[in-house]
Design goal:
Membrane topology: Single-pass type II membrane protein
Strand order of the largest sheet: 6-5-4-7-8-9-10-11-12
InterPro entries: Cell_div_FtsQ/DivIB_C, FtsQ, FtsQ_DivIB, POTRA, POTRA_FtsQ_type
Protein name: Cell division protein FtsQ
Family: Belongs to the FtsQ/DivIB family. FtsQ subfamily.
Order of helices and strands: HEHHEEEEEEHEEEHEE
Radius of gyration: 33 Å
CATH architecture of the largest domain: 3-Layer(aba) Sandwich
Largest sheet: 9 strands, mixed
Structural class: alpha/beta
CATH topology of the largest domain: Rossmann fold
CATH class of the largest domain: Alpha Beta
Number of strands: 12
GO cellular component, one term: cell division site
């Protein structure tokens, strides 16, 4: 009887060990199967395909224009959509300053754009173009906007002169910008502002523009026809 109990106990232990091995194998197979199914669902199946495009931040651009340029391949698995390629295509639009493209699971490609904002306008050939804070020319205007100054350059609209002019305008307080008729750039060290009331501001270079803007805001309270802030630590005025 004792031997029978011992034999049965041995068989139970052997079965338990075998079941433990089988269970581990089954678990491994289950995990591998789930991983394989997940990979198939994400990378190859139509279950998680790109079905739509969401565009935010478009104001000067239309949503339809962004979608057209983005050329997102719909009905392709969302995981396989080349987001960098989509971003590059949208970034090629002159109005777009920044773009972010992400996957919005389960079926959306989300495009967020930051558009350039004009701080001034410049005449280039027969076109009136918008100029952003970085000196980038990016859009056309049919007529001069009433609230934006013009940029005039004596040596042509070079990249450097436009960048300097944009830096000056961007430093001005918001309430002062509409009072500027135009920014004249003779050289990068000879920049002047012509105010709409006929007064002139000698600015000098774009260096220290923020400090010059602060000084000018105070200085304009004095009666004068010319305000010189080219050396902001020693501003002057004259009739």
């Amino acid at each position: 009887m004792s031997q029978e109990r011992t034999r049965r106990a041995f068989l139970r232990r052997r079965w338990a060990r075998r079941w433990l091995s089988w269970r581990r194998a089954l678990l491994v197979l289950l995990v591998v199967g789930l991983l394989g199914l997940g990979a198939y669902a994400v990378w190859f199946s139509a279950w998680l395909r790109a079905e739509q495009v969401s565009v935010t931040g478009a104001d000067q651009l239309s949503v339809a224009e962004v979608e057209r340029v983005a050329a997102v391949p719909l009905d392709e698995p969302l995981a396989r959509v080349d987001l960098d390629a989509v971003s590059t295509r949208v970034q090629s639009l002159a109005v777009v300053k920044e773009v972010d493209v992400v996957r919005g699971w389960p079926h959306t490609v989300e495009i967020t754009v930051v558009e350039r904002e004009a701080v001034a306008v410049v005449q280039i050939g027969a076109s009136l173009r918008g100029l952003d804070e970085d000196g980038v020319v990016f859009r056309d205007f049919a007529s001069p906007p009433a609230d934006l100054p013009r940029v005039q350059t004596s040596s042509g609209a070079t990249t450097e002169s436009l960048r300097e002019a944009a830096a000056v305008v961007s430093a001005l307080p918001d309430d002062l910008v509409p009072r500027v008729d135009h920014v004249s750039v003779a050289t990068v060290d000879q920049i002047e502002l012509a105010l709409r009331d006929g007064r002139t501001v000698v600015w000098g270079s774009a260096e220290d523009s923020a400090q010059k803007a602060e000084v000018l805001e105070v200085l304009l309270g004095q009666e004068a026809s010319v305000y010189d802030v080219s050396v902001p630590s020693n501003p002057t005025t004259r009739q």
